[in-house]
Specification:
Layout lengths: L1 H29 L2 H12 L1 E9 L4 H4 L1 E11 L2 H7 L9 E12 L1 H5 L4 E8 L2 E6 L8 H4 L29 E17 L4 E17 L8 E13 L10 E15 L6 E17 L2 H7 L2 H7 L9 E4 L6 E7 L2 E10 L3 E10 L5 E9 L4 H15 L3 H4 L4 H9 L10 E8 L4 E7 L5 H11 L6 H11 L5 H14 L1
Helix pairs in contact: 9-11, 12-13, 13-14
Amino acid sequence: MLKKAFWGLVALVCLLVVTIVAAGIILYKTVDKTFIESHLSATLHRQVTIEKIDVSLFSIVSGIEAERIAVSNFKTPETLAALAGHPVDEKDLFADLEAFRFKLKFLPLLKRQVEIQELLLIRPVVRLVKDKRGRLNIDDLIRSKKKPLDDRKPWKEDSAPPLSADNLPVAVAISEIGLKDARITYHDAKYNQTFQAYNLTALLQDIRIDPKALAQNDEMRVKLDLGVKTLAPLKTGSVQSFDLTLGADGKVIPFDLQTRLLNPEALVRLSLPSGKVTGLQVFNALTKIPILGDYLGSQLSFLKGTQRWSASTESGMNLRYKGDQVEIKSGRLDLAETKILFDGGLNLASKAIKMNLNLTLSQDLNDGIQTSLAKKFDAAIKRPDVRKYVDPSRLAMAAMEPLLNDDGRIALGTSVNGTTEKPRVKLVQPQLRSLDVVIRDSMTSVATEAGKEAVRGAVKEHLNENQQQLLNDLGGLLKRKE
């Protein structure tokens, strides 16, 4: 019995080896540099050249690796035929890659199942361009097209039905697919804006999509690390310039379970360990709230400048994305002069924003704010005979009390509406009185028999003709003191 089992195992191993070798010979004889170049060129409608490709008898198991791949911009079939055998012109580069790795799982092939173990683009450099008419130089790759026109124009767009899970001929199983150490530059000719993603590693892992069991197999893990920056100051938009490092870890659900249509939902934790941002419109709008200008003065002007942070383990947010709508929870940004907590949402299509934004200022700003308030109060109290009853420094301390949290730091709660380019910021907490009212109430509370008339006169100076009712109320208050 054991002998039969042993020889059965030997036969199985031999069959497996023969199958691998046979598949390897077919692959080795069929797949070479010219074969891949021609097929990629025909598929991408771009000139493709490969410097080196590694294909062996055992590539069916070990995988295929190609090195130094160059891809041109769009070409017609006639132009591709004329360029065959020539290198891609550097001025016409759409993308170039240091390496491309592709590996299938062998055993599922025996069951007529295709499972990709690895598909990676190593150090790709990609140049995306949108022209003044809004056409991307990859439109022909991402949309359904009709007959190509020429090298200068993308293909004429044809309406394509939305992709359904039922369109997949087989279940999809991929261990890992993505980019490593990539650089992608995007230029928008209409607005003359250029952005760049650098040190980009974007991986989709454990991809499982089965149209026959979509409820159980409709998910992939996503891991993302990159830097993203503007290459020149922006003339329009929600920010002037930025340079951020980002990290994301979470999952993507590609197909909607109800409609079975491709409508990705992403649930990720986005970290922001370091960054630099200048001219954020939300911050600019916050500094323009009149009552905050009265209380905080120039001490809030730092928000108009460049914000920097580094080595932050707390800065980041939880994101949910689906159908152009982004929901934000547990948002936090640790800046040098303030800590910001935020949540809410925005629509990427309309740029509509609705958020709660809470700031806690550095305690180092307190002394400057108190000194500034004292100077304002001192300038407002013009009569010398009142100064001996009202201390501007004490007034400043009293005025600051509503601003302070339990830790003695200034805390502001705001709501943000409008759009990312034109946000409307409203102060929600604390409810602040005007400085005129603070002065009036303070002078009333310290009024004495000796200073009663002086205080009444000072208050009268402080009120305009539309505020006489306040003066009458103060007169009644003083009479009650008599």
